Protein: Sugar ABC transporter substrate-binding protein
Organism: Paenibacillus radicis
Amino acid sequence: MRKATSIAAVSAVLLTTILSGCSSDGASEAKDSNPGAPKPVKLSLWTFQELHKKYYEKTAELWNKSNPNQPIELTIDTYPNAEMHNKLLIALQSGVGAPDISDININYFQNFLKGDIQLVELNNIIEPEKDKFIQSRFDIYSKNGKYYGIDFHVGATVVYYNKELLDKAGVNADTIKTWNDYIEAGKKVLVATGKPMTSFEVTGQRPFWPMIIQRGSDYLDKKGDVTLDNEINIKTLQAMKDMIDKDKVAVPMPGGNTGAEEFFTFMNKGGAASLIMPMWYMSRFLEYMPDLKGKILVRPMPVWENGNVRSAGMGGTGTAVTKQSKNQDAATKFLAYAKLTKESNVRIWQELKFDPIRWDVWNNPELQKPDPYFSNEVIFNVLLGMKDEIKSPNMSELSSASQDLVNSNVMFKSLKDQSQTPEQALKAAAAELRKQKK
Protein backbone atom coordinates (compact mmCIF):
# COMPACT_ATOMS: atom_id res chain seq x y z
CA MET A 1 0.00 0.00 0.00
CA ARG A 2 2.84 2.34 0.79
CA LYS A 3 4.28 1.78 -2.69
CA ALA A 4 0.94 2.49 -4.37
CA THR A 5 0.51 5.67 -2.37
CA SER A 6 4.00 6.82 -3.29
CA ILE A 7 3.39 6.25 -6.99
CA ALA A 8 0.10 8.16 -6.81
CA ALA A 9 1.81 11.07 -5.07
CA VAL A 10 4.56 11.25 -7.68
CA SER A 11 1.97 11.09 -10.45
CA ALA A 12 0.07 13.98 -8.90
CA VAL A 13 3.22 16.08 -8.70
CA LEU A 14 4.04 15.31 -12.33
CA LEU A 15 0.51 16.19 -13.44
CA THR A 16 0.62 19.46 -11.54
CA THR A 17 3.96 20.31 -13.16
CA ILE A 18 2.67 19.50 -16.65
CA LEU A 19 -0.50 21.54 -16.19
CA SER A 20 1.39 24.52 -14.79
CA GLY A 21 3.72 24.36 -17.81
CA CYS A 22 0.69 24.59 -20.14
CA SER A 23 -0.71 27.79 -18.70
CA SER A 24 -2.83 29.81 -21.11
CA ASP A 25 -0.37 32.72 -21.48
CA GLY A 26 2.72 30.56 -21.89
CA ALA A 27 4.59 32.79 -19.46
CA SER A 28 6.01 29.96 -17.35
CA GLU A 29 7.16 28.04 -20.42
CA ALA A 30 8.87 31.14 -21.85
CA LYS A 31 10.45 31.92 -18.51
CA ASP A 32 11.74 28.37 -18.07
CA SER A 33 13.05 28.14 -21.65
CA ASN A 34 15.06 31.37 -21.38
CA PRO A 35 15.21 32.51 -17.76
CA GLY A 36 17.98 35.04 -18.52
CA ALA A 37 16.18 36.87 -21.36
CA PRO A 38 16.24 40.67 -20.86
CA LYS A 39 12.93 42.45 -20.48
CA PRO A 40 12.04 44.62 -23.51
CA VAL A 41 12.21 48.37 -23.06
CA LYS A 42 8.83 49.87 -23.85
CA LEU A 43 8.96 52.84 -26.25
CA SER A 44 6.09 54.91 -27.63
CA LEU A 45 6.18 56.78 -30.95
CA TRP A 46 3.78 59.24 -32.57
CA THR A 47 3.56 59.92 -36.28
CA PHE A 48 1.16 61.59 -38.73
CA GLN A 49 1.98 59.36 -41.69
CA GLU A 50 0.93 55.74 -42.15
CA LEU A 51 3.93 55.03 -44.40
CA HIS A 52 6.25 56.17 -41.61
CA LYS A 53 4.45 53.84 -39.19
CA LYS A 54 5.10 50.82 -41.43
CA TYR A 55 8.75 51.80 -41.71
CA TYR A 56 9.16 52.07 -37.94
CA GLU A 57 7.40 48.74 -37.35
CA LYS A 58 9.83 46.99 -39.68
CA THR A 59 12.75 48.85 -38.07
CA ALA A 60 11.71 47.65 -34.60
CA GLU A 61 11.67 44.05 -35.86
CA LEU A 62 15.14 44.44 -37.33
CA TRP A 63 16.40 46.10 -34.14
CA ASN A 64 15.25 43.18 -32.00
CA LYS A 65 16.91 40.67 -34.32
CA SER A 66 20.16 42.62 -34.30
CA ASN A 67 20.06 43.51 -30.60
CA PRO A 68 18.71 40.49 -28.69
CA ASN A 69 20.25 41.77 -25.47
CA GLN A 70 18.55 45.18 -25.82
CA PRO A 71 15.03 44.36 -27.08
CA ILE A 72 12.38 47.04 -27.42
CA GLU A 73 8.61 46.94 -27.48
CA LEU A 74 7.52 49.77 -29.78
CA THR A 75 3.99 51.16 -29.67
CA ILE A 76 3.10 53.50 -32.54
CA ASP A 77 0.14 55.88 -32.69
CA THR A 78 -0.84 57.65 -35.91
CA TYR A 79 -2.83 60.90 -35.82
CA PRO A 80 -3.95 63.48 -38.40
CA ASN A 81 -1.14 65.96 -39.08
CA ALA A 82 -2.38 69.12 -37.30
CA GLU A 83 -4.02 67.15 -34.46
CA MET A 84 -0.82 65.27 -33.67
CA HIS A 85 1.30 68.41 -33.50
CA ASN A 86 -1.19 70.21 -31.28
CA LYS A 87 -1.43 67.19 -29.01
CA LEU A 88 2.36 66.91 -28.79
CA LEU A 89 2.85 70.59 -28.06
CA ILE A 90 0.27 70.53 -25.25
CA ALA A 91 1.83 67.38 -23.77
CA LEU A 92 5.32 68.89 -23.76
CA GLN A 93 4.14 72.21 -22.35
CA SER A 94 2.12 70.54 -19.58
CA GLY A 95 4.89 68.07 -18.72
CA VAL A 96 2.74 64.97 -19.11
CA GLY A 97 1.51 62.64 -21.85
CA ALA A 98 4.24 62.93 -24.48
CA PRO A 99 5.66 59.85 -26.26
CA ASP A 100 9.28 58.76 -26.13
CA ILE A 101 9.79 59.53 -29.83
CA SER A 102 7.81 61.67 -32.26
CA ASP A 103 7.82 62.66 -35.90
CA ILE A 104 7.52 66.45 -36.25
CA ASN A 105 6.70 68.01 -39.62
CA ILE A 106 9.25 70.58 -40.75
CA ASN A 107 6.51 73.24 -40.88
CA TYR A 108 5.79 72.83 -37.17
CA PHE A 109 9.27 72.06 -35.84
CA GLN A 110 10.17 75.63 -34.85
CA ASN A 111 7.21 75.66 -32.45
CA PHE A 112 9.08 73.06 -30.40
CA LEU A 113 12.32 75.06 -30.21
CA LYS A 114 10.90 77.96 -28.21
CA GLY A 115 11.66 78.68 -24.56
CA ASP A 116 12.70 75.68 -22.48
CA ILE A 117 13.13 73.08 -25.23
CA GLN A 118 11.54 69.77 -24.30
CA LEU A 119 13.35 67.73 -26.96
CA VAL A 120 16.55 65.78 -26.34
CA GLU A 121 19.76 67.09 -27.90
CA LEU A 122 21.01 64.60 -30.54
CA ASN A 123 24.55 65.85 -31.17
CA ASN A 124 26.07 62.69 -29.66
CA ILE A 125 24.56 60.49 -32.39
CA ILE A 126 24.78 62.98 -35.27
CA GLU A 127 28.27 64.45 -34.99
CA PRO A 128 30.36 61.23 -35.26
CA GLU A 129 29.36 60.74 -38.92
CA LYS A 130 28.03 64.16 -39.83
CA ASP A 131 30.35 64.45 -42.85
CA LYS A 132 28.44 61.61 -44.54
CA PHE A 133 25.18 63.55 -44.50
CA ILE A 134 23.65 66.56 -46.24
CA GLN A 135 24.38 69.16 -43.56
CA SER A 136 21.47 71.46 -44.41
CA ARG A 137 19.01 68.73 -43.39
CA PHE A 138 20.37 68.85 -39.84
CA ASP A 139 20.51 72.63 -39.68
CA ILE A 140 16.74 73.03 -40.14
CA TYR A 141 16.12 71.09 -36.93
CA SER A 142 18.77 72.86 -34.85
CA LYS A 143 19.16 75.80 -32.52
CA ASN A 144 22.37 77.35 -31.16
CA GLY A 145 24.48 74.51 -32.55
CA LYS A 146 22.33 71.77 -31.01
CA TYR A 147 20.42 69.25 -33.14
CA TYR A 148 16.96 68.12 -32.10
CA GLY A 149 15.56 66.22 -35.09
CA ILE A 150 16.61 63.80 -37.83
CA ASP A 151 14.95 63.77 -41.25
CA PHE A 152 13.97 60.93 -43.57
CA HIS A 153 15.01 62.61 -46.79
CA VAL A 154 16.88 65.40 -48.53
CA GLY A 155 13.89 66.46 -50.63
CA ALA A 156 16.26 67.64 -53.36
CA THR A 157 14.30 69.64 -55.95
CA VAL A 158 14.85 68.46 -59.53
CA VAL A 159 13.23 68.84 -62.92
CA TYR A 160 11.22 65.92 -64.27
CA TYR A 161 11.32 66.15 -68.07
CA ASN A 162 8.99 64.30 -70.44
CA LYS A 163 11.56 63.02 -72.94
CA GLU A 164 8.91 62.09 -75.49
CA LEU A 165 7.74 65.72 -75.76
CA LEU A 166 11.29 67.09 -75.73
CA ASP A 167 12.29 64.71 -78.56
CA LYS A 168 9.40 65.91 -80.71
CA ALA A 169 10.76 69.46 -80.32
CA GLY A 170 14.37 68.46 -80.89
CA VAL A 171 15.34 69.51 -77.35
CA ASN A 172 18.07 67.77 -75.34
CA ALA A 173 17.47 68.12 -71.60
CA ASP A 174 21.21 68.05 -70.90
CA THR A 175 21.69 71.33 -72.78
CA ILE A 176 19.32 73.19 -70.43
CA LYS A 177 21.63 74.90 -67.93
CA THR A 178 19.92 78.23 -67.21
CA TRP A 179 16.33 79.38 -66.85
CA ASN A 180 16.77 81.27 -70.13
CA ASP A 181 17.70 77.94 -71.75
CA TYR A 182 14.62 76.43 -70.16
CA ILE A 183 12.32 79.15 -71.54
CA GLU A 184 13.80 78.87 -75.05
CA ALA A 185 13.41 75.09 -74.95
CA GLY A 186 9.82 75.61 -73.82
CA LYS A 187 9.10 77.76 -76.86
CA LYS A 188 10.32 74.97 -79.13
CA VAL A 189 8.14 72.45 -77.29
CA LEU A 190 5.12 74.72 -77.64
CA VAL A 191 5.59 75.10 -81.41
CA ALA A 192 6.23 71.38 -81.97
CA THR A 193 3.61 69.89 -79.65
CA GLY A 194 1.21 72.64 -78.58
CA LYS A 195 2.05 71.72 -74.98
CA PRO A 196 3.47 74.05 -72.29
CA MET A 197 6.90 73.38 -70.87
CA THR A 198 5.57 73.32 -67.30
CA SER A 199 2.83 74.36 -64.88
CA PHE A 200 3.00 76.30 -61.63
CA GLU A 201 1.07 75.74 -58.41
CA VAL A 202 -1.48 78.46 -57.69
CA THR A 203 -2.76 77.07 -54.38
CA GLY A 204 0.74 76.01 -53.36
CA GLN A 205 4.25 77.42 -53.35
CA ARG A 206 6.11 75.29 -55.88
CA PRO A 207 8.31 75.92 -57.72
CA PHE A 208 8.53 79.49 -56.39
CA TRP A 209 10.10 78.55 -53.06
CA PRO A 210 12.92 76.35 -54.43
CA MET A 211 13.51 78.91 -57.20
CA ILE A 212 14.30 81.65 -54.66
CA ILE A 213 16.24 79.31 -52.37
CA GLN A 214 18.64 78.51 -55.20
CA ARG A 215 19.26 82.26 -55.61
CA GLY A 216 20.22 82.65 -51.95
CA SER A 217 16.89 84.16 -50.91
CA ASP A 218 13.97 82.96 -48.79
CA TYR A 219 10.74 84.03 -47.10
CA LEU A 220 12.67 84.73 -43.88
CA ASP A 221 16.34 85.31 -43.12
CA LYS A 222 18.41 83.30 -40.64
CA LYS A 223 17.30 85.60 -37.80
CA GLY A 224 13.64 85.05 -38.64
CA ASP A 225 13.11 88.53 -40.09
CA VAL A 226 10.74 88.83 -43.05
CA THR A 227 12.39 88.93 -46.50
CA LEU A 228 9.42 87.72 -48.52
CA ASP A 229 9.14 90.97 -50.49
CA ASN A 230 12.81 91.42 -51.33
CA GLU A 231 14.05 92.18 -54.85
CA ILE A 232 15.10 88.61 -55.70
CA ASN A 233 11.69 87.22 -54.76
CA ILE A 234 9.83 89.89 -56.73
CA LYS A 235 11.99 89.29 -59.80
CA THR A 236 11.55 85.52 -59.54
CA LEU A 237 7.77 85.65 -59.21
CA GLN A 238 7.58 88.18 -62.05
CA ALA A 239 9.65 85.82 -64.23
CA MET A 240 7.18 83.03 -63.47
CA LYS A 241 4.29 85.30 -64.44
CA ASP A 242 6.09 86.19 -67.68
CA MET A 243 6.51 82.49 -68.45
CA ILE A 244 2.71 82.23 -68.34
CA ASP A 245 1.64 85.52 -69.98
CA LYS A 246 4.52 86.54 -72.21
CA ASP A 247 6.47 83.41 -73.17
CA LYS A 248 3.48 81.05 -73.03
CA VAL A 249 5.71 78.21 -71.79
CA ALA A 250 3.89 77.72 -68.46
CA VAL A 251 0.28 77.45 -67.31
CA PRO A 252 -1.46 77.68 -63.92
CA MET A 253 -1.62 74.15 -62.55
CA PRO A 254 -4.84 72.21 -63.16
CA GLY A 255 -6.35 71.51 -59.74
CA GLY A 256 -4.15 74.21 -58.23
CA ASN A 257 -1.37 72.04 -56.83
CA THR A 258 0.71 68.91 -57.36
CA GLY A 259 -1.49 66.79 -55.10
CA ALA A 260 -4.71 67.37 -57.03
CA GLU A 261 -6.34 64.55 -59.01
CA GLU A 262 -6.83 66.94 -61.94
CA PHE A 263 -3.09 67.53 -62.05
CA PHE A 264 -2.25 63.83 -62.00
CA THR A 265 -4.57 63.32 -64.98
CA PHE A 266 -3.10 66.34 -66.77
CA MET A 267 0.50 65.11 -66.41
CA ASN A 268 -0.34 61.48 -67.10
CA LYS A 269 -1.76 62.50 -70.49
CA GLY A 270 1.41 64.41 -71.35
CA GLY A 271 -0.07 67.80 -70.48
CA ALA A 272 3.31 69.47 -69.89
CA ALA A 273 6.90 68.76 -70.87
CA SER A 274 8.36 69.11 -67.37
CA LEU A 275 7.68 69.55 -63.66
CA ILE A 276 9.87 71.10 -60.95
CA MET A 277 9.41 69.15 -57.71
CA PRO A 278 11.46 67.43 -54.97
CA MET A 279 12.78 63.88 -55.32
CA TRP A 280 10.13 62.53 -52.98
CA TYR A 281 7.57 63.30 -55.70
CA MET A 282 8.88 60.28 -57.62
CA SER A 283 6.41 58.13 -55.70
CA ARG A 284 3.53 60.21 -57.10
CA PHE A 285 4.69 59.53 -60.64
CA LEU A 286 4.82 55.81 -59.92
CA GLU A 287 1.41 55.73 -58.26
CA TYR A 288 -0.65 58.22 -60.25
CA MET A 289 0.98 58.58 -63.68
CA PRO A 290 1.52 55.08 -65.08
CA ASP A 291 1.37 56.19 -68.71
CA LEU A 292 4.62 58.15 -68.31
CA LYS A 293 6.68 55.02 -67.56
CA GLY A 294 9.95 55.14 -69.45
CA LYS A 295 9.44 58.74 -70.57
CA ILE A 296 10.65 60.76 -67.57
CA LEU A 297 14.17 62.16 -67.17
CA VAL A 298 15.44 63.53 -63.83
CA ARG A 299 17.81 66.50 -64.06
CA PRO A 300 19.12 69.36 -61.84
CA MET A 301 17.25 72.67 -61.73
CA PRO A 302 18.47 75.34 -64.19
CA VAL A 303 20.14 78.37 -62.58
CA TRP A 304 19.30 82.06 -62.84
CA GLU A 305 22.86 83.35 -62.75
CA ASN A 306 26.42 82.20 -62.01
CA GLY A 307 26.90 81.21 -58.40
CA ASN A 308 23.38 79.81 -57.93
CA VAL A 309 22.95 76.26 -56.67
CA ARG A 310 21.05 73.70 -58.76
CA SER A 311 18.70 72.39 -56.10
CA ALA A 312 16.87 73.09 -52.84
CA GLY A 313 15.91 70.65 -50.11
CA MET A 314 12.18 70.99 -49.55
CA GLY A 315 9.76 69.41 -47.09
CA GLY A 316 10.75 67.04 -44.32
CA THR A 317 10.01 65.30 -41.04
CA GLY A 318 12.33 65.77 -38.07
CA THR A 319 12.05 62.82 -35.70
CA ALA A 320 12.81 63.75 -32.10
CA VAL A 321 13.16 62.19 -28.64
CA THR A 322 11.21 63.98 -25.90
CA LYS A 323 12.58 64.83 -22.47
CA GLN A 324 9.53 63.17 -20.92
CA SER A 325 10.87 59.80 -22.04
CA LYS A 326 11.96 57.61 -19.13
CA ASN A 327 14.13 55.66 -21.57
CA GLN A 328 15.95 58.44 -23.40
CA ASP A 329 19.07 56.38 -24.02
CA ALA A 330 17.15 53.51 -25.63
CA ALA A 331 14.97 55.92 -27.61
CA THR A 332 18.00 57.81 -28.92
CA LYS A 333 19.78 54.59 -29.92
CA PHE A 334 16.69 53.37 -31.75
CA LEU A 335 16.34 56.71 -33.57
CA ALA A 336 19.98 56.50 -34.69
CA TYR A 337 19.39 52.95 -35.88
CA ALA A 338 16.26 54.00 -37.79
CA LYS A 339 17.63 57.08 -39.54
CA LEU A 340 21.42 57.38 -39.37
CA THR A 341 22.87 53.97 -40.28
CA LYS A 342 23.80 53.01 -43.82
CA GLU A 343 21.32 50.15 -43.73
CA SER A 344 18.43 52.38 -42.66
CA ASN A 345 19.17 54.94 -45.35
CA VAL A 346 19.11 52.23 -48.02
CA ARG A 347 15.78 51.03 -46.63
CA ILE A 348 14.39 54.57 -46.67
CA TRP A 349 14.89 54.53 -50.43
CA GLN A 350 13.65 50.97 -50.92
CA GLU A 351 10.54 51.24 -48.75
CA LEU A 352 9.59 54.94 -48.87
CA LYS A 353 11.17 56.09 -52.16
CA PHE A 354 12.75 59.06 -50.33
CA ASP A 355 16.20 60.39 -51.21
CA PRO A 356 18.10 59.52 -48.00
CA ILE A 357 20.07 62.17 -46.12
CA ARG A 358 23.16 59.97 -45.95
CA TRP A 359 24.80 60.69 -49.31
CA ASP A 360 27.43 57.94 -49.05
CA VAL A 361 24.70 55.36 -49.71
CA TRP A 362 23.81 57.00 -53.02
CA ASN A 363 26.56 54.78 -54.50
CA ASN A 364 25.05 51.67 -52.92
CA PRO A 365 24.12 48.96 -55.47
CA GLU A 366 20.47 49.21 -54.40
CA LEU A 367 20.42 52.91 -55.25
CA GLN A 368 22.50 52.50 -58.40
CA LYS A 369 19.99 50.32 -60.19
CA PRO A 370 18.63 51.82 -63.44
CA ASP A 371 14.97 52.73 -62.98
CA PRO A 372 12.66 51.53 -65.77
CA TYR A 373 10.10 54.25 -65.06
CA PHE A 374 12.65 57.05 -65.17
CA SER A 375 14.09 56.31 -68.62
CA ASN A 376 16.15 53.42 -67.25
CA GLU A 377 18.67 55.86 -65.78
CA VAL A 378 20.52 55.83 -62.44
CA ILE A 379 18.74 58.67 -60.66
CA PHE A 380 21.18 59.04 -57.78
CA ASN A 381 24.02 59.94 -60.13
CA VAL A 382 22.16 63.23 -60.64
CA LEU A 383 22.18 63.87 -56.89
CA LEU A 384 25.81 62.85 -56.49
CA GLY A 385 26.73 65.51 -59.04
CA MET A 386 25.10 68.25 -56.99
CA LYS A 387 25.27 67.00 -53.38
CA ASP A 388 26.98 70.22 -52.23
CA GLU A 389 24.32 72.40 -53.89
CA ILE A 390 21.22 71.30 -51.98
CA LYS A 391 20.24 74.26 -49.79
CA SER A 392 17.38 74.13 -47.30
CA PRO A 393 15.11 77.04 -46.35
CA ASN A 394 15.48 79.09 -43.19
CA MET A 395 12.99 77.98 -40.56
CA SER A 396 11.70 80.14 -37.68
CA GLU A 397 8.52 80.80 -35.72
CA LEU A 398 6.97 82.55 -38.76
CA SER A 399 7.69 79.67 -41.15
CA SER A 400 4.20 78.18 -41.10
CA ALA A 401 2.52 81.59 -41.42
CA SER A 402 4.73 82.61 -44.33
CA GLN A 403 3.98 79.42 -46.23
CA ASP A 404 0.26 79.76 -45.57
CA LEU A 405 0.24 83.26 -47.02
CA VAL A 406 2.18 82.25 -50.13
CA ASN A 407 -0.07 79.21 -50.63
CA SER A 408 -3.39 80.94 -50.06
CA ASN A 409 -2.75 84.46 -51.37
CA VAL A 410 0.47 85.21 -53.21
CA MET A 411 0.51 82.54 -55.90
CA PHE A 412 -3.21 82.68 -56.69
CA LYS A 413 -3.46 86.46 -56.82
CA SER A 414 -0.33 86.92 -58.92
CA LEU A 415 -0.49 83.90 -61.26
CA LYS A 416 -4.13 82.79 -61.44
CA ASP A 417 -6.69 85.59 -61.06
CA GLN A 418 -3.93 88.22 -61.44
CA SER A 419 -5.73 90.65 -59.16
CA GLN A 420 -2.30 91.77 -57.94
CA THR A 421 1.11 92.07 -59.53
CA PRO A 422 3.84 89.81 -58.11
CA GLU A 423 5.28 92.81 -56.26
CA GLN A 424 1.91 93.81 -54.80
CA ALA A 425 1.11 90.26 -53.70
CA LEU A 426 4.49 89.75 -52.03
CA LYS A 427 4.46 93.13 -50.29
CA ALA A 428 0.94 92.55 -48.94
CA ALA A 429 1.90 89.15 -47.57
CA ALA A 430 5.15 90.49 -46.10
CA ALA A 431 3.27 93.31 -44.34
CA GLU A 432 0.91 90.76 -42.77
CA LEU A 433 3.88 88.68 -41.56
CA ARG A 434 5.56 91.70 -40.01
CA LYS A 435 2.37 92.45 -38.06
CA GLN A 436 2.42 88.90 -36.70
CA LYS A 437 6.07 89.24 -35.68
CA LYS A 438 5.22 92.27 -33.54
The longest strand covers residues 41-47. The chain has a mean pLDDT of 91.
